[in-house]
Design a protein that fits this description.
This protein has 110 residues and is mostly beta strands. The chain is built from two helices and eight strands. The chain has a single domain, classed as Jelly Rolls (Sandwich).
Amino acid sequence: MSSYLTQNPPLKVQFLRIKDEPFRWSNSIEVVIVLEGSIHAAIADENRTLRVGGIEIFNINQVHRLLHTNEDNLVLLINIDAEFAKDHCSDLSKIWFAHEFGPGAYLGLE
């Protein structure tokens, strides 16, 4: 049995209603998917609004903040443990995830 299953789970999945959260970072890849309403996502001095279907990916230890808008919201938050991810992708330290995807966005061939 993997030590991931006996200690801390490699994936943490939560449904949340976002209020004003403080800036945070974690040793994980964090994926935020907006299911209802909208939220603001802040990275350093950049702030953008994510609406239903919007996805934001925060890199390992990337400082970020989630804030509510004037709408009620529901988000799916998935944290993928960094060590678990590195065990499954040895080149992870060379990867920088694109941050924002909106419904219908064309990401190109890459």
